């Protein structure tokens, strides 16, 4: 079976890496995935497909009715707890909506680059459809691609000058500590100014500043970065696809 994912993230420092470039790759089907069609969603029996015309209206209304902000991602390596930002309401609502519908229970972490990011949300074996839509970008200077940042992938620049996000492909940032000189260069490149706190984060825990103001950050890991590190250690093929798939189940949890 061939993957047809098109949303991606990329870094100017990693053009030679085939990560997140929408390239096709074969993946073995596990027993769990083979029975995906038989699994029933637990909260919503159906997921109404969205379109480019109604996405903002639907997500705006959904956001008002569903204030969920804590997310739990379960994998065979353990659990990851994340907090979604209220200041990115469309992205938060979209992620919660797909989660509550069981959409992400038919997904996996399907591309991995150690030291850069792990990307999830998609699967060849998904039966649930979310519709063909993109989410308007919600760049916020307060939220950077520090280690543990949750962001949405997006489609290529030529087709997407507004830098709108994918409907469902997400990633969690890894990244190494950066020097102050590097950060000053990224400030000039992206026409931004990092706060002292952001500089401290980048120079201590690390991250990927090349992605700032390019992809919407809408949450962060608050527990389980060790699980992300384990996923990042998965053996991969030449296209950065894990040799053994890493399925995920995602749910909202109480505040």
From TrEMBL:
GO MF entries: peptidyl-prolyl cis-trans isomerase activity
One Pfam family of this chain: Pro_isomerase
InterPro entries assigned to the protein according to its UniProt record, in alphabetical order: Cyclophilin-like_dom_sf, Cyclophilin-type_PPIase_dom, Cyclophilin_A-like
Signal sequence extent: 1-24
Record's keyword terms, sorted: Isomerase, Rotamase, Signal
UniProt cross-references to CDD domains, sorted A to Z: cyclophilin
Start and end residues of each PPIase cyclophilin-type domain: 78-255
Keyword Cytoplasm in annotation: no
Record's protein name: peptidylprolyl isomerase
Species of the source: Pontibacter lucknowensis
């Amino acid at each position: 079976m061939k993957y047809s994912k098109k949303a991606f993230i990329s870094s100017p420092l990693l053009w030679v890496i085939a990560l997140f470039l929408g390239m096709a790759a074969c993946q073995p089907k596990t027993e769990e995935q083979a029975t995906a069609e038989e699994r029933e969603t637990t909260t919503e029996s159906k997921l109404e497909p969205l379109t480019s015309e109604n996405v903002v209206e639907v997500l705006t209304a959904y956001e008002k009715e569903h204030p969920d902000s804590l997310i739990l991602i379960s994998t065979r390596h353990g659990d990851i707890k994340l907090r979604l930002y209220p200041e990115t309401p469309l992205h938060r609502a979209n992620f919660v909506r797909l989660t509550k519908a069981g959409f992400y229970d038919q997904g996996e972490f399907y591309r991995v680059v150690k030291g850069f990011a792990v990307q999830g949300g998609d699967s060849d074996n998904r039966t649930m459809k979310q519709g063909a839509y993109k989410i308007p970008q919600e760049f916020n200077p307060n939220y950077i691609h520090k280690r543990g940042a949750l962001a949405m992938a997006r489609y290529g620049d030529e087709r997407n000058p507004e830098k709108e996000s994918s409907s469902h492909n997400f990633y969690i940032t890894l990244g190494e500590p950066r020097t102050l000189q590097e950060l000053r260069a990224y400030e000039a490149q992206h026409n931004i100014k990092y706060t002292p706190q952001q500089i401290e984060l980048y120079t201590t825990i690390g991250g990927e500043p090349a992605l700032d103001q390019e992809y919407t950050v809408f949450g962060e890991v608050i527990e389980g970065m060790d699980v992300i590190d384990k996923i990042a250690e998965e053996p991969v093929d030449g296209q950065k696809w894990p040799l053994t798939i890493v399925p995920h189940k995602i749910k909202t949890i109480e505040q």
